[in-house]
Amino acid sequence: MESTILNKTDDKIIQIESPILNIDKLSVSYGGDKYSIMDVSAGIQKNKITAIMGPSGCGKSTLLRAINRMHELYPDTHHKGSITLAGENIYKINPIELRRKIGMVFQRPNPFPTMSIYDNVIAAYKLNGIKLKKSEKDEIVERSLREVGLWDETKDALHKKGTFLSGGQQQRLCIARALAYKPEVILLDEPTSALDPIATAKIEDLLVNLKKNYTIILVTHNMGQAARISDHSMFMYLGELVEYGKTKKMFTTPKDERTEAYLTGKFG
Amino acid sequence: MNTINSISNQKLRWRVFNDKLFSIVMMTLAFISAVPLISILYQLIKKGYKQVRLSFFIEVAPDTMEAMMAKVNHEIIPGGIANGIVGTLIIVGMASLIAIPLGLTTGIYLSESSKNKMANIVRFVVDMLQGVPSIVLGVIAYIWVVKPITSGFSALAGSVALSIMMLPSIIRSTEETLKMIPPTLKEAALSLGVPYYKTVLKVLLPTGMSGISTGIILGISRIAGETAPLMLTALGSSAINLDITQPSSAIPLLVWEFYNDPNLVNLIWGASLILLLIIFLLNIVAKAISKKWKVQY
Amino acid sequence: MKSEKLFQYFLKLGGIIVLMVAIGILVTLIIGSIPTFKEFGFGFIFSSNWNPTEGRESYGALPFIIGTIVTSILALVLTFPFALSIALFLGEYFKKGRISSLLKTMIDLLAGIPSVVYGLWGFYTIRPIIVELGLNAQGFGIFTSAFVLAIMIIPYASSISAEVINMVPSQLKEAAYSLGATRFEVVKHVIIPNAGSGIFAGFILAFGRAIGETMAVTMLIGNSNNIPTNLFDIGNTMASLIANQFGEAEGLKYTSLVAMGLLLFVITGILNLIGKMVMRKFTA
Question: What was the ipTM of the complex prediction?
C-alpha cells in the first residue's frame, strides 16, 4: 500500500476548473478504524457524466453515498475530509436539505409500491410535506415524465401503481422521481444492473440527454457503459481513487497499471 | 423554484423538530409499557417474598378457619401451596403427554407435505385453534371429559383443555423448524440409502431439536398460568390429589381461591410470585436452548 | 417399503386427529347449544334479558356481546399508541443492540404474566386509582378491565407489527431518504403504508385475544347482567360470564352458556383467520 500511495502523482487525477462538487480528502468508515474509502480527492464538473468504476468492494458505492450523506443511515459511520456543493460544505447542510439538491437512483428500480405513478413522481413533495395545487402537480408530473421519455407510455395510466411497469420503465420512473425536485446533481448507483440490454440502452440515451440540465455521477460495474456515456471516469481500487481523467483518455492510455489491469479485464 | 426553496427553508426547522419530537414520543411510549411490568413485579415481590418459606412448598393450603385464627392471633397464616404445585405438575405434565406426541407428528406431517390439500386444511385448523379462548376449551373439556368419563371434575379434564391449548404452538414450531432445515441434509441421508422414516427420526428431528423444544417449553409456559379452563374442569382441591380422575388444585386455581376468601387473601402474593417465577424460568430455559443449541446449517 | 408407507400414514393420522379435535369442538358446541337456540331462536343473540329465576327463565346474550365488544375495542384503542411505538422501536429505530433486547425481554415478560395475576394487579393497583380519580365509585367496570386488557395484549399487537415493519424493504426507505425525507416522514409515508396490512393483522389478532380473555376481566368488570351505559359502567363479557356461572349451571342456563361459548369460538375464530390471512398475503 505504501508504495502505491507514493506513486500517486497528480497527473493521474485531473484537476477540474470550478467544480460543482469538490471532494476533499474524504475517508468514510462504517465503524471502527477500517475505512471503506480513504483520502479521496476529486472535483466533479458541472453538466457532465462522471462514471465511477472499480471491482466490487472498491468503495465506489460508498463514495457515491457519501455525496448525499446516505451512508449516515447506518449507525456507527464516520468520515474525515469534506465535500462542497457549489462551495458549501455538505456536512454543514442538513441532510434533508442536501438530499433534495442531490437526487439518487438505485441499483434496483424501487418505486413506492403503495403509490401510483403520479404520486411516485411527486413523492419528494409529498414526503417533504409541500402542498401544491393540482395544476402545479400535473405540470411537474408531465415535465418529469417527459424528461425521462415515459410520458407517452404512461399518460393514460398515471393513477395505476408504479409497480405494474416493466423493469426499465420502473427505473425511468425512479429517475423522474429524482428529477421532479430539480436537483443539481443526480447520483446513480449501477442503475442498469438489473435491466435487460434494450432497457439499458434507453436509460443510457436518457442520461446523455439529461446532462444538459443536470450533473450526473454514475457508479457502474459495466466498463462499456462508462465508455459509451461518461465524460470523465474514476477508477477506484481498495478504497483508493487510483485514477481520474477524461474517459476517452483513460480507456485508451491509462496511467496506472491497476487501471490498465482492470480495463483489460484482469480483475473485477 | 425559488419560492419553493424559501418555503421549504421555513419548513425545514419545523420538519426537523417534528422528526425529533416523534422519536422522543415514540421512545417514551415504548418504555412506558414497562411501567405496569415493574409495578406488577414490585407488588408481587414486596408482598409475596415473606410468604415464600420452605413450608410454603411442602404444606397444603390452609382452610379458612385456620387462617382466620392465625389472623386473629396476629400470626403468619400457616400452610402453603403444595396441593397447587403438585396439581399443576400433574395437570401440565399430563397435558404435555397428550399434546407433545400429537403436536410432533402433526408438525412433521405438515413440514413434509407442504402443498398437499389435506395439509392445508390442517394448517387452517391449527391457525383457528390458536385463537380459541381458553375458557371455551374449558367448556369443551367439561363436555368431553367431566360429564362422560370422570363423571365429575377431574385433573384429567383440566389436562385435556390445556393440551388442546398448547397443541398449535407445538405444531407450528415443529413445522417451521423442520422447514428451515436445508433439503440437502435430507437428500444426503436418503442418498445413503437411509429409509425415509429413519431420516426423519434420526436426522431431521435431532437437527431441529432446539427449535422444537423451545416451542414445547413456550407452550408449557403458556398453559402453566391458565386459570379459567381449570375452573370448569379440575375445579380445585384442598388436598394433594394424585388420582387424575378426581378434582385437583393448581397454583393459578389457588390464587383464584385465595383471592375470593377474605381470610386467605394475603396468600395470593406468595402463590402468584411462585407461579410467575415458574413461568419466567420456563421462558429463560426456552431462550437458552434456542441460543445455545442453535444448529448452524 | 411397508414401514415407509406405515410411517407416512402415521404422520397423517396426527393431522387427522387435530382436524377431528377442531371439528369436534365446533360440533360439540353446536349440539350443546341446540336447546337454547330452539327455545329462544336468534332472540338469544338479540335479547338483553339474562334471568335465571325459575319459571321466568330467559337468556339473552346481548349485554355480554356488547360488554365484550366495547371492552375489547377500548382495550385496542388504549393499546394502539403503545404497541405501535414498540413496534417502530424494535422494527425500525433500534433493530439491534442492548436497548432493544431490553425492551424485547420486557415484552416477553409481559406476555408471560398469567391472566389471574393481571387481575390481581388490576384489583389492587388500578382499581384504587380509578376510585381516586372519581371515575367510578367502586373502581370496577368496562374501563378498568379494558385498561388491564390493553396491557395484556401489547405483546401480541407489537410483536407482529414489529416483524412486518422490519420487513419493509430498505431500498424503499432509502429511496425516500434520498428524496430528502426525515425519518418521521419515512415512517409516515413509506413504512406505515407498506406495513399497514401487516400491522392491521397484528391488531386483529390482539383484538381476538382481548375478546377471549377471561380471568382479569372477571376480576375487574363488575359482573353485571345489564347493558353498560357508559365506559365507566360495570358490565360483563361473554368469557367472564361463562367463568362465573358455568359451575352451577343446569338446563337452559347450561346450554345458553355453551351457546355463549359457541359465539366466542366463532367470533375469535373469524378474527384469527382474517388476521392470519392478511399476514400470509403480506409475507408471501
Answer: 0.94
